[in-house]
């Protein structure tokens, strides 16, 4: 059984993240979306809120699960028996950080492989932070996030 994790902050989940989930979930027996609970990173949504939003969106996918961790990604992967880390790549600017992270992860645990999925061209510009910026100034985020996330953003910035 091959278990993959898709780790991230997901503050909040966007259509770009969802696209990666839809495209990769059938490559593995199980895909676990792992929300990083990083106390050093200030987020708009709490981990509970982020988890609830994602769970609502993936509930029809029977091989997708959502978990939260504050542990090191490779340690958490080992703990749940995952052997693959999925990451999305948008622009060249993502590359340097992702190369560094995957190299560290490989040094820490060489049984776990990171695979990269190129963002769909429709979402290659899309980031959680730009969506938050638009929502903050009451812009329409319908094209960028699912309905439940749009509603949650409107409520946050009311
Ligand atoms: P992190 O803080 O770990 O980068 P994010 O929630 O920003 O967390 O992103 C999680 C993963 O999803 C990263 O690999 C990121 O490159 C990828 N990702 C983010 N936005 C998109 C998008 N629009 N299309 C494809 N992948 C994306």
Describe the structure.
By secondary structure, the chain is α/β, with parallel strands linked by helices. 42% of the residues lie in helices and 20% in strands. It has 6 helices and 5 strands, in the order βαβαβαβαβαα. It has helices at residues 15-24, 47-58, 73-80, 92-108, 128-136, 147-156; strands at 3-8, 30-36, 64-69, 84-89, 113-118. A 5-stranded parallel beta sheet has the order 3-2-1-4-5, with helices on both faces. The longest helix is centred in the middle third of the chain and has 17 residues, at 92-108. The relative contact order is 0.21. The mean pLDDT is 97. Residues 8-10, 14, 16-17, 20, 87-88, 90, 94, 119, 123, 126-128 line the site of adenosine-5'-diphosphate.
